[in-house]
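Structure request: ferredoxin--NADP(+) reductase, Thiobacillus sedimenti.
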Amino acid sequence: MSEWVEATVVERIRWNDALISLRFEAELAPFNAGQFIRAGMDIAGERIGRPYSMVNAPDERPHEIYFNVVREGPLSPRLAQLQPGERFWVVPAPTGFLTLDEIPDARHLWLLATGTAIGPFLSILKTAAPWSRFEKVVLGHSVRTRDELSYQETIQEIQQRHPVQFQYVPFVTREPGDGPLGQRIPASIESGALERETGLALTPALAHVMLCGNAGMLQDTLASLEKRGLKRHRRREPGHVSMEKYH
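Returned structure:
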């Protein structure tokens, strides 16, 4: 395959002023749920590319990416303006290690994300693998405001397919109200609120945690988990926490 191939927009979803999903068709290599792709556009004579996780499952079409519009950024504002039928560029081979085949077995799988970093976890949850490997699967999604709790229909469909195994925990940190937890993910671990909400224990004997988000979230959440005896997972040194910084 060439370094870049054309992608054609099929659908543009505008969740709010800053959150956009693009569904597109492109000739991509097979990929594993949880991996990301590089998308780009030609801007001022230069091809600018950034990594974006795949939201669709590997066998699902069209392909889909979900991203935050960085107002001062060179690429995302232009990607956000694309309409069905318009084109952009993608590198055809997805990559990344935030996949289930990279983690050890456990009884409970925790998928904890901030903002648009929920994308790779939705891809994973659409596959058969988590439901055959884990007794319980928790998806935690932390956002600032309620209008950032995107993909609710998809999450409801997952809940309906796996009512016993699946739990969804939204966190809304900058708006008061009943329902979603009002703490950041690391604070909810420190206080025990996340365990109380789910009825599940975050312990090395039971849990494997996958984290996807900004650097601060990863650092703080890992520190909170380490206080409970969980340690970072590496190929050479198996542990309980897998993580990927989300750009």
